[in-house]
Amino acid sequence: MAAITKPTTPFEGQRPGTSGLRKKVKVFQQPGYLENFVQSVYDVIGDFSGSTLVVGGDGRYYNKEAIQIILKMAAANGFGRALVGRDGILSTPAASCVIRKHGAYGGLILSASHNPAGPDEDFGIKYNIGSGGPAPEGVTEAIFARTGNISEYKTLDVDDITLEQLGTVQIGDMQVEVIDPVADYAELMQSIFDFDAIRELLSGDFRMAFDAMHAVTGPYARVIFEEMLGAPEGTVINGIARDDFGGGHPDPNLTYAEELVDMMYGEHAPDFGAASDGDGDRNMILGRHFFVTPSDSLAILAANARLVPGYADGIAGVARSMPTSAAVDRVAARLGIDCYETPTGWKFFGNLMDAGKVTLCGEESFGTGSNHVREKDGPWAVLFWLNILAVRKVSVEEIVNEHWTLYGRNYYSRYDYEGVDAAAAEEMMAYLRSRFEKLPGNNFGERIVKTCDDFSYTDPVDQSVSSGQGIRILFEDGSRIIFRLSGTGTEGATVRVYIESFEHDTDKHGMNAQEALGDLIETAGVISRLQEFTGRSEPTVIT
Ligand code: G16
Predict the structure, then answer these.
(1) pLDDT digits (tens, 9 = 90+) for 313-332
(2) From ligand 1's centre to the CA of 122, what distance in Å?
């Protein structure tokens, strides 16, 4: 069947952000908008003729329509085979798993992650390469450059295919296989973790709750936790994936995972609680009346990795994004392994994992993962914790307290100011940069500024340089304040302020993070004049 070529003209602003192109659904629904981006991907990723493309998304509004467009264009551009999750569903880590397992050329993942879904909300798309990881910056920049001069796209004039049934159908010369979205992923999880030990844990008095937040992990969690591991029915809450995520904001943090948080801090709380986000790559871990920060979670997984069959031989190294606390650095030092500090964005971990330099990676933004795939992985992190709990047979709180006693505690918090005027946010960042020479040596309470810079990263594998990755104010006592503008929002700018201070003294480990960081939080406001620039006196979200 002959491809049809349709003329088109470029759209402004199709530069992928921290994790792909994220815009309002209405923007994506403009005729040619998605087509331009997809054709730009196909135009720059090399010779894929006859090879396999993986396609799937988090099930949000516009997912299925987008998949039909992508498949017809894939066939017209020469892909030989496409693997698509049933109902158009593939969580982000599952998509990465499928790309790797089936030797696909790459994949298109449709998600705006934790951002709300629905006709007036967000949609997103990103390209992942054959390793299963998000395309590196060189590729995303080439895609963006192509969107600026695109003049036509190729498609086929065929009917939509049925995504609801497993099986194989043909679009032009391309075979489309509709696959079970959970099977490959569940099999991979079984190969890493001690399912027997976790099954035994869950068959006793131990109780857990998993909040799928009406998003993509519902089907995965029900199969893995309830069917395979025998957790009682109802363990998974909000487990039906809806195209508007039930009207919620599926971001697993203390603000948005309210139902789970109430349960875990209520009377008769379960022993263990966890939540994942819209596309299944983030995780939040809770014990009874206890929250584990993502930075601590990464450090604890690294310290306990040998308890898990998949990591029993030890881990090669660890990596964290720059704003993530240095808790994992201390574990790496004790284990005698390397620890890498990268910019924010999972794509920066890909080279390190491919080169065998790191096994575990994590970010303060509720992302943890390993080299089993090339995305962060929500349910994997939950299984990791369950495996540790099954072996150590103590509570989440005890594990964290013991960890702090051994390594010290990195008090940590992030303040988000969402929907800020973009120009005002840029002005504030420019103001901070203008202070770099003046701040060092200044006292703020008892803390003295040591250095300030704009974080720049040279990839140790391919030597590529990524600069302007966040402003760091580093104090002589090792504490830090970081300012960054988010690369994932769709409205105005989101200012993120990250605050960290290390406490070695065990007697001071019991403080509330806000209390322990109070003076630094105040200093952040003074140094940045945030309120003056943005008009905001309070953050929208504190994690
Ligand atoms: C994405 C990226 C993460 C990043 C997070 C927050 O996560 O994959 O690496 O940490 O965004 O980024 P920002 O601070 O720029 O908003 P997700 O879960 O949204 O795909």
Answers:
(1) 999 999 999 999 999 999 99
(2) 15
